[in-house]
Write a structure and sequence with these properties.
Strand order of the largest sheet: 1-2
InterPro entries: Dimeric_a/b-barrel, Rham/fucose_mutarotase
Radius of gyration: 17 Å
GO biological process, one term: rhamnose catabolic process
Protein name: L-rhamnose 1-epimerase
Pfam family, one: rhaM
Organism: Pseudarthrobacter siccitolerans
CATH topology: Alpha-Beta Plaits
Largest sheet: 2 strands, antiparallel
Number of strands: 2
Strand content: 5-15%
């Protein structure tokens, strides 16, 4: 986990630009002490954004570098996403409450 943190403290500029160009906005990774890794990003179309990254040569190089840090070596790290359903959003509920009150 220390190596994962180290590598993400200085992501290659080419990789950063590829993510931005592919539509990955407000992208963050969170790593718990037990190894749980959570990613958050905003984009217009998640599948399209992932597909655009899959076409970037720098992404293939980055995933190969990161693969050594994951237990499942049969799968590139960016292919192991588990999409979580949003069950609460403060801004959405505030907006709904304001519109029903007004």
């Amino acid at each position: 986990m220390a190596e994962y943190r180290r590598r993400h403290a200085a992501v290659w500029p080419e990789m950063l630009q590829a993510l931005k160009d592919a539509g990955w906005n407000n992208y963050s990774l969170f790593l718990a002490e037990d190894g749980l890794l959570i990613g958050y990003l905003e984009c217009d179309d998640f599948d399209a954004a992932r597909a655009r990254m899959a076409l970037a040569d720098v992404n293939a190089r980055w995933q190969a570098e990161m693969a050594t840090l994951f237990e499942n070596t049969d799968q590139a790290p960016d292919e192991g996403f588990q999409v979580l359903e949003e069950v609460f959003n403060l801004d959405s509920q505030l907006a709904a409450a304001e519109s029903s009150a007004g």
